């Protein structure tokens, strides 16, 4: 999935995040009731933006990197759908923390 | 179409985007139901702005270029109609990512 | 008309724009139904402002020039009436693009 | 009138403007119907402010000068009454253009 | 009155203003109807603030001084009562002009 | 009381203020009706913040100091309760003036 | 608990705060009525952010450190749940003061 998502290069200080809190299915096919609803803002960074420039024209490095599991603002970002998978494009600013 | 759209030079950090998600018609004339409604914010960059200046009077380069397929904010930009074709003039800031 | 409009010197980064999309009358006096309503934000730049200063006190050059046909934000600018002709004074910022 | 208005020194980047579009009376006492209502934002600059400082502490020069006939934003400025005459104190920023 | 008001040192770019437009009483005790209602925003500067610092840490000088009769925004400032006299603490920014 | 309040170190440009206008009780236990209601925004500075940094990383000095009697914006600050005493933590910006 | 919370690294100038004012249970199992409701904004800093950069690209040091008991704005921060424990991720800016 991350490979496919890499088809989008976010602009500027944005990152592409794949939500991980929905439709988790246990091995063997039994659907686990979505207890994850209490923390709906978890995701995995699948693409990093082209970079934001500071006043001197230098790129500001990202704090997060591809593969990071992150907590992000519930209302941050814009939903995009790629190959029937929902993603969020958000500013790194909207990411609250890195898990793990 | 892109050739005609090039008749507009966007000002500053704006770009001209031609929407690609509406009224797609299959060869042979059968209208395909608009399943694209889930991602209504896709377009093709058909013209780049005159450039935005930083505090030192230097032009800030654009990240997108003509021909780029982009995802943009659903509510970003202003609609303009040229030769019966709708376009959007928006700030590069309103472009979320480049596809492909 | 442009000559008369030149009687106003816009302040700072403003420009004076004469709308071109209304009351177009064909030669011979037949009124053409206003099909231009779909692109109501077209105009001609008839005067350039006194210039905006940057932080160093230097004037920032205008991108548009007198005679340019422009697309501008439908809600940008302030209407002024001179010799029974409506004009718009708007910031160059409110101009979206140059046509042609 | 301008002489009396000079009793107020506007602070900073403000100017004092005397409206010219109301209660125009023709010689001989016949009141001319107020056709000026369509351009209610015309005035004459009667006093210039103490000046606005830039970041370096230098005064930014005014573009308008006393005696200039100006167009200004209908809702800009604050009304003040001096010797039964209404004036407007507004920022130079609220002046749209100089007439003439 | 000004002497008592001097008991307050306004912070930063604030000034202390004593309103002069209310309860004017003629010698001999006859109360003059408050015709001053039309210009309710007149006052006398009775104390100057501790000063505002610019980005370099230098104090920005005040334009007004103690004793100045000023016009100020009707809604600017905060009312304070000292020894049964109302005063206004406002930013110098809220003062529109100096009278006289 | 001030000693106890000193248990809180305000962050940045904040100060800790102890209100002085409520529940004043005369010696002998007779409660004085709260005539202070007209100036409810008086307090005593009981702790100074850790300091605010300017753009160069230098600390901006406070204008107020511990022990100062101050007037502050009625709606500024956040109430905190320590040992059954109410305090306000507010930015120095919200302090209007120093009394005395 | 703090050890577990350390599994989250807040981004930028954010800190992770564990609330301390709820569900305090006395030894022996008797639930103490929540008298702490009057000061609901108390917490313990359990993780410090990756740091905020100033305009020169230098990290701005944090004022608070892990283990600090803090007062914070009641409405600041975003709730996150980790291992059945609620935490708040907030900007250091939202912390009002350090207790003790």
What class, by secondary structure content of chain A? Answer: mainly beta
Shape of chain A: globular
Mean pLDDT over all positions of chain A = 77
Tell me about the biggest sheet of chain A? 6 strands, antiparallel
User: Largest beta sheet of chain A: what is the strand line-up?
Assistant: 7-8-2-3-6-9
Overall tally of structural domains of chain A: 1
Written overview of the protein:
Seven copies of one chain form a homoheptamer. Chain A has 100 residues and is mainly beta. The first copy, chain A, has one domain: 10 Kd Chaperonin, Protein Cpn10, Chain O. In chain A, 4% of the residues lie in helices and 41% in strands. The first copy, chain A, is built from one helix and nine strands; from the N terminus they run αβββββββββ. Chain A has one helix at 2-5; strands at 8-10, 14-19, 42-48, 52-53, 59-60, 69-72, 78-82, 85-91, 95-99. In chain A, strand 4 (52-53) and strand 5 form a beta hairpin. The first copy, chain A, is globular and about 40 Å long. Chains in contact: A-B, A-G, B-C, C-D, D-E, E-F, F-G. Chain A binds chain G through residues 38-39, 41, 54-55, 58, 60, 63-64, 71, 73-74, 92-93, 95-100, and chain G through 7-12, 14, 16, 47, 49-50, 53, 55, 57, 78, 80-82, 89.
